[in-house]
Specification:
With 320 residues, the protein is an alpha+beta fold. The chain has helices at residues 3-13, 18-22, 140-146, 151-162, 173-185, 193-208, 217-227, 235-242, 246-257, 261-276, 283-289, 295-306, 310-316, and strands spanning 36-38, 45-55, 61-70, 73-79, 82-90, 93-96, 103-105, 109-115, 119-125, 128-139, 166-170. Strands 1-2-3-10-5-8-11 form a 7-stranded antiparallel sheet. Strands 4-9-6-7 form a 4-stranded antiparallel sheet. The longest helix has 16 residues, at 193-208.
Length: 320
C-alpha cells in the first residue's frame, strides 16, 4: 500500500478535531509539502502543503497543518464532544455552529472550545497566502482517565466542555513555542508519539493557564489602561502596547466581550467618569482624567450613555 493511500485510510478511520475537519477538503490528495491538494473533482488545487494527524495512546488527537496558496473554500463538518485547543499561527477562517457565537480566527490566536455534544460546523476559509495551525482534541474519555491522577484539572476541563466554553486570545509565548515543537514532532516520516504526549499535555496546561489570569485579552487591556487612565486609548495604541496585531486584538476582544472593543473602551471611560463625579474633582478635571479632550466632549458622550450631563448630576448633588 502506498504512502498516500495509507494516509487516506488512517485519516478516514480517526475521529477528527474541529480544525482537521475544517481542512478536510485539503487533505484528500495529501502527498508532501510540495503536493497539490484538491477540494473537489476537476476544481483544481486549492492549496499546497501538508497536514499531519496523530491519535496518541492517551486518546488525545493532534493535527498540524502547514499550507500555502489557499483558494477560498467553504464546508460543513462535524465534531465530537471534548475540549479543543487550537493554536493558529498564520491564516484566517470563520466558523459557525448552533449554540456558539461565530468564531473568527486570525494569525497568532489561541482558541479553546468546549463541545458537550456532537455538532456540525459551517467553516469558511478565504483565499490567503499561508495557513499554519496546530490543534488538539482532548475527548471526554481522556478527561475521565485524567481524573484518577489530577481530579482538579479533570473537573475544570469537564466544566468547560459542559458549559460550551469558548475563548479567543492572542497566543501566549509558551503556547507558540509548543505549537512549533508539535509541528516538528508531527513531521514525516512518522510522528514522534512519545514526545507528542508530553507536548500535548503542556499545550493543554498553557491553554488553561490563560483562563482567569492576566493573559486573557481583556485583563491585559484593563491592566494597560490602569497604568495611564488619562491617555486616549485606541486599538492602535493598545496593539502597540501589547505587541498584538490590531486585527487579532479586535477579534479576540470582540469574541471575549461579545461587543466591539471600541464600545468597551468607551464604556470603561464613561463609567470611570461617573464614579469620579461623586468626588471633589471639577468636571474639567474629570474629563481630563478619563481621556476626553474637553468637558463638552465628555458631556456629549455622558448624556448619550446615561441620559444626563455631568453638570446636571453635580447640580442636583445626587450621588452617582
Amino acid at each position: 500500500m502506498g504512502a498516500d493511500s495509507g494516509l487516506r485510510q488512517a485519516f478516514a478511520s480517526r475521529s477528527e478535531s474541529i480544525t482537521v475537519r475544517r481542512l478536510r477538503t485539503l487533505t484528500d490528495q495529501h502527498r508532501s509539502l510540495a503536493s497539490e491538494i484538491q477540494s473537489r473533482p476537476n476544481s483544481g488545487p486549492i492549496a499546497c502543503g501538508r497536514i499531519e494527524v496523530a491519535t496518541l495512546r492517551s486518546g488525545v488527537r493532534l493535527m498540524s497543518g502547514s499550507l500555502r496558496g489557499l483558494r477560498e473554500t467553504s464546508t460543513v463538518t462535524a465534531s465530537e464532544p471534548g475540549l479543543y485547543v487550537e493554536v493558529r499561527l498564520t491564516g484566517l477562517s470563520r466558523a459557525t455552529s448552533e449554540g456558539f457565537p461565530p468564531i473568527e480566527l486570525d494569525g497568532e490566536t489561541l482558541h479553546v472550545l468546549g463541545q458537550p455534544q456532537p455538532g456540525n460546523w459551517q467553516v469558511f476559509v478565504p483565499e490567503q497566502p499561508a495557513f499554519e495551525v496546530v490543534s488538539a482534541c482532548f475527548p471526554q474519555a481522556f478527561v475521565e482517565s485524567l481524573a484518577a491522577s489530577d481530579p482538579t484539572s479533570a473537573e475544570r476541563i469537564a466544566a468547560k466542555i459542559a458549559s460550551r466554553h469558548c475563548s479567543l486570545v492572542p497566543v501566549p509565548q509558551a503556547a507558540h513555542v509548543l505549537a512549533r515543537e508539535i509541528l516538528l514532532a508531527m513531521a514525516p516520516p512518522e510522528p514522534d508519539k512519545l514526545r507528542l504526549e508530553g507536548l500535548a499535555l503542556c499545550l493543554l496546561t498553557a491553554a488553561l493557564g490563560t483562563e482567569g489570569s492576566a493573559s486573557g485579552i481583556i485583563d491585559q487591556i484593563d491592566a494597560v489602561i490602569a497604568r495611564n487612565p488619562p491617555r486616549l486609548w485606541t486599538v492602535a495604541a493598545l496593539s502597540a502596547e501589547l505587541g498584538v496585531p490590531p486585527t487579532t486584538l479586535k477579534r479576540a476582544a470582540s469574541q471575549e466581550l461579545g461587543q466591539p472593543i471600541g464600545a468597551y473602551l468607551s464604556e470603561q471611560r464613561l463609567q470611570a467618569a461617573r464614579a469620579l463625579l461623586s468626588g471633589p474633582l471639577s468636571i474639567s478635571k474629570v474629563a481630563e482624567a478619563v481621556g476626553y479632550s474637553t468637558p463638552e466632549a465628555l458631556a456629549k458622550a455622558f448624556r448619550s450613555r446615561f441620559g444626563e450631563t455631568p453638570t446636571e448630576v453635580r447640580r442636583r448633588g445626587r450621588p452617582v
